[in-house]
């Protein structure tokens, strides 16, 4: 079976995709039915989902506006007035701690003319003041100062109505901060489901919790954000080929890993919420950096986390929490794929470590992460090259008519009795298929803000 492509107009649009009964609020273009672009039953994906500008705009309104999105780590906010800025989709956001110690997140846009009220990446402040006309907001988002306020009509003016726009929901899990614009979104724990069990293998190794070190590394890549998110959720398959030279460099012999390591057994978890993680399984699973390996008491970890987590997702593996948050336990790397148009993403990456790690172990893990992942990492560069290569040719007319194959592992998903939820073999596209199935569901469902305006 192949995905049926719809004819293109001279402008490169496919009018057959447009449904007339779902319209974007505020008079924008009609919504696009993506049913013909995603065939998860047969493992086929239309690559228009990576290139079409209209689909990208619909993602902003339905996927990013409706989902729980990663903002940062609680360790970035130590006291009242601390803040950092980030994005939810393409919307700029301020994350701060108010005077009561509550973490809050606001749209970083002045209610007067729309400029950002904070242009710094992070810092500490008592108020957020727009440098355009001087409107100022407190840590709770309330408008507290308006130059020449007497010039506003007392019949129309109500300062209380012009505070910063706050996210609908904000929650934390294992030190990570998530938020959503969607007031109807299920609780964060419900969105995570069984995925939280796998996340705990990474972030609950220490009773004291985790900390972030080294700041945030940021870089821009050519490529659609979904290419990165799906790989981190589903794709161990590329490791031996794409990272062959890096594996040779890291191996003791310089010839690459032994066959039993290169072809390791493992499991891949996926769920209906689009989350996915894969990991090798071995009773002697260990951390790659020598000082980190020596630091851990694996017997104690089995007592804390259970053997299944220690022998699997605690160390080597990959994961994505839908839509655009990913992590790598063996490196202590967490990252978010910020969309910057259909052809570009901005990657933000943190190094997360257990709080109890002594300084020399922290340094070893941080340096190992930098050498392997990050803009200069020997693995990261391979990944970025792959995504950019895919994107660079996907606008070709003939290229953009050929469906992509996500058929590996179809029918193998099952409850294995060891790992929570549905798992398949490590070498599988199962999590990728469910990632795109969730994406398609959101793309074809009117979002909370559309329902409110109908």
TrEMBL record:
Instruction: Please list every transmembrane segment annotated in the UniProt record, as residue ranges.
Output: none
Keyword Oxidoreductase on this protein? yes
This protein's UniProt keywords: 2Fe-2S, Aromatic hydrocarbons catabolism, Dioxygenase, Iron, Iron-sulfur, Metal-binding, NAD, Oxidoreductase
Check the record and name the InterPro entries matching this protein. RHO_NdoB-like_C, Rieske_2Fe-2S, Rieske_2Fe-2S_sf, Ring_hydroxy_dOase_asu_C_dom, Rng_hydr_dOase-A
- Where's the Rieske domain? 68-147
Write one Pfam family the protein is assigned to: Ring_hydroxyl_A
Q: Does the keyword Iron apply?
A: yes
| Single GO molecular function | oxidoreductase activity, acting on paired donors, with incorporation or reduction of molecular oxygen
Q: Which residues form a coiled coil?
A: none
- SUPFAM superfamilies membership: Bet v1-like, ISP domain
The family annotation for this protein states:
Belongs to the bacterial ring-hydroxylating dioxygenase alpha subunit family.
What this protein is called in its record is Aromatic ring-hydroxylating dioxygenase subunit alpha
């Amino acid at each position: 079976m192949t995905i049926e492509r719809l004819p293109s107009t001279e402008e490169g649009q496919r009018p057959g995709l447009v449904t007339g009964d779902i319209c974007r609020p505020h008079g924008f273009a009609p919504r696009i039915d993506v049913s013909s672009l995603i065939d998860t039953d047969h493992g086929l994906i239309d690559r228009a989902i990576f290139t079409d500008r209209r689909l990208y705009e619909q993602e902003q309104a339905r996927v990013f506006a409706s989902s729980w999105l990663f903002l940062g780590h609680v360790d970035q906010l130590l006291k009242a007035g601390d803040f950092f800025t980030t994005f939810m989709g393409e919307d700029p956001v301020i994350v701060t701690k108010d005077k009561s110690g509550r973490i809050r997140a606001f749209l970083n846009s002045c209610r007067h003319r729309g400029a950002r009220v904070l242009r710094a990446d992070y810092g500490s402040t008592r108020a957020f003041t727009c440098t355009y006309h001087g409107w100022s907001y407190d840590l709770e988002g309330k408008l507290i100062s308006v130059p020449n306020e007497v010039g506003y009509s007392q019949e129309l003016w109500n300062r209380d109505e012009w505070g910063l726009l706050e996210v609908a929901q904000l929650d934390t899990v294992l030190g990570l901060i998530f938020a959503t614009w969607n007031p109807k979104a299920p609780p964060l724990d419900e969105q995570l489901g069984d995925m939280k069990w796998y996340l705990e293998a990474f972030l609950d190794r220490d009773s004291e919790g985790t900390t972030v070190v080294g700041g945030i590394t940021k870089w821009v890549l050519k490529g659609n954000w979904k290419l990165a998110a799906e790989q981190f959720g589903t794709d161990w398959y590329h490791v031996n080929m794409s990272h062959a030279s890096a594996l040779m460099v890291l191996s003791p012999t310089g010839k690459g890993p032994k066959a039993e390591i290169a072809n390791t057994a493992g499991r891949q978890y996926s769920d209906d919420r689009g989350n996915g993680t894969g990991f090798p399984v071995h009773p002697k699973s260990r951390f790659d950096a020598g000082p980190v390996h020596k630091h851990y008491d694996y017997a104690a970890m089995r007592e804390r986390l259970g053997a299944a987590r220690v022998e699997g997702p605690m160390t080597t593996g990959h994961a994505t929490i839908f839509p655009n948050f990913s992590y790598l336990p063996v490196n202590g790397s967490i990252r978010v794929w910020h969309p910057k148009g259909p052809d570009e993403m901005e990657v933000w990456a943190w190094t997360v470590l257990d709080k109890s790690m002594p300084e020399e172990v922290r340094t070893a893990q941080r340096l190992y992460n930098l050498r392997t992942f990050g803009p200069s990492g020997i693995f990261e560069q391979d990944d970025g090259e792959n995504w950019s290569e895919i994107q660079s040719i996907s606008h070709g007319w003939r290229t953009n008519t050929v469906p992509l194959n996500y058929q590996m592992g179809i029918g193998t998903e099952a409850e294995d009795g060891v790992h929570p939820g549905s798992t398949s073999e490590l070498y599988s596209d199962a999590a990728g298929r469910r990632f795109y199935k969730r994406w398609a569901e959101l793309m074809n469902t009117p979002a909370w803000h559309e329902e409110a305006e109908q």
